[in-house]
Amino acid sequence: MSDLAAGAMLFVISHEIIPETHRRGHENWATGGFTIGLLTMLSLDILLG
């Protein structure tokens, strides 16, 4: 259940708090890029300690 809450928070942050990323109709690309960047950052943090 916490995974669902975390995903919902990422969606809200990307769509509502950072509206500059959603110019010119690229909402899905901006949200996907935000999510991929966050996952990459977290993976590197875990792998590199």
UniProtKB/TrEMBL annotation:
This is Zinc/iron permease.
